[in-house]
């Protein structure tokens, strides 16, 4: 039975259904919880520095799947993504400018 489960897991990876985050004020570590379509969950800690490369990877993967795959996107999800992405870009640009200014001084 266990071998059968491992073989199935290898052949058919699970799909993610949802992700939730818990951001706590005045701390550098935050929680993220992924929920699979079968209801199982994976919870982990992250920092802004550790999650940024993952977000970049997911952005590249999303771009590739849209260009190469079969997909169906909800227009509301597209708008939400565009809004949150532009907000993140604004924050990162401000941080970069502050870092550059501090370095010059």
Tell me what you see in this structure.
- The protein has 3 helices and 3 strands.
- With 105 residues, it is an alpha+beta fold.
- It has helices spanning 2-11, 48-68, 75-104; strands spanning 16-22, 30-36, 41-46.
- Strands 1-2-3 form a 3-stranded antiparallel beta sheet.
- A hairpin with a 7-residue loop joins strand 1 (16-22) and strand 2 (30-36).
Would you spell out the secondary-structure blueprint of this structure?
Layout: H1 2-11, E1 16-22, E2 30-36, E3 41-46, H2 48-68, H3 75-104
Features:
58% helix; alpha+beta; 105 residues; three-stranded antiparallel sheet
A few lines on this structure:
The chain has 105 residues and is an alpha+beta fold. It is built from three helices and three strands, in the order αβββαα.
Q: Which structural class do you get from the secondary structure elements?
A: alpha+beta
Task: Give the overall form.
Answer: extended
Bin the helical content: 55-70%
Task: Please report which band the strand proportion falls in: under 5%, 5-15%, 15-25%, 25-35%, 35-45% or over 45%.
Answer: 15-25%
